[in-house]
Amino acid sequence: MCRNIRQLFNFDPPATDDEIRDAALQFVRKVSGSTRPSKRNEEAFERAVAEIAGSVRELLGSMETAQPPKNREEEAARARARTMIRFA
Predict the structure, then answer these.
(1) pTM score > 0.90 for this model?
(2) Per-residue DSSP letters for the chain?
(3) φ/ψ of residue 12, rounded to 5
(4) How do the domains of the chain map onto residue ranges?
(5) CA 26, CA 31: separation in Å to the nearest integer?
(6) How far apart are CA 84 and CA 13, in angstroms?
(7) What is the pLDDT of residues 62-88, one digit of tens each?
(8) 20-38 per-position pLDDT tens digit
(9) Is the Cβ–Cβ distance between 8 and 56 less than 8 Å?
(10) Per-residue pLDDT for 44 more than 50?
(11) Which residue, among 21, 19, 26, has the nearest Cα to 72 in the 3D structure?
C-alpha cells in the first residue's frame, strides 16, 4: 500500500472531500505508474479519480463501528513521533 494514503474512516471531524480526492488521486497514480498523465490519458485519469473518490465516499458513509472516533491531532502527533524515531 502506498504510504501517502491514510486511513480516513472513524475520525472526528470526518474526512473531507479534499482528503478523499487526494487519496483517490494517489491510488490512481500508483496503479497507473504515472504522477502526471499525458494529454491523451488525462480524461481517463481524472475520470478514474472521480469514480474512486465517489466509491470511497459511499464506503465511508455506509461503514459502522462501535469504536469512538479518533482525534486528528492525536493521530498526527503519533505519526510525527513515529517518523522522528524512524528517521532520527
Answers:
(1) no
(2) --TT----SSEESPPPHHHHHHHHHHHHHHHHT-SS--TTTHHHHHHHHHHHHHHHHHHHHH---SSPPEEHHHHHHHHHHHHHHHH-
(3) -120, 115
(4) 11-87
(5) 9
(6) 26
(7) 999 999 999 988 988 998 999 999 998
(8) 999 999 999 999 999 999 9
(9) yes
(10) yes
(11) 19
